[in-house]
Design a protein that fits this description.
This protein is mainly alpha-helical. The protein contains 4 helices and no strands. The chain has one domain. Helix content is 37%, strand content 0%. It is globular.
Length: 73
């Protein structure tokens, strides 16, 4: 399983919190690439709720990780 920013972007509008199966259903309905669906299927299904992309991909970068100053624009 691997994640990239491009793949994670397809789950930004997902109905958080959600179970693995709900995320897979959302990915299929929203037309996400096959890699997103495969990554979600690779997660162990313990019936847990995921609150955000950080729960699935712990290294998911936050806005603080980027050196972009929003106040300048």
């Amino acid at each position: 399983m691997y994640w990239t920013l491009e793949l994670a972007h397809h789950l930004e509008e997902a109905p958080w919190p959600a179970t693995r199966d709900e995320l897979i259903d959302y990915a299929i309905r929203s037309g996400a690439p096959l890699e997103v669906i495969e990554n979600l299927q690779a997660i162990e299904d313990d019936g847990d709720l995921y609150d955000s992309m950080e729960d699935i991909w712990p290294d998911y970068p936050s806005k603080d990780d980027f050196l972009f100053n929003e106040d300048e624009y």
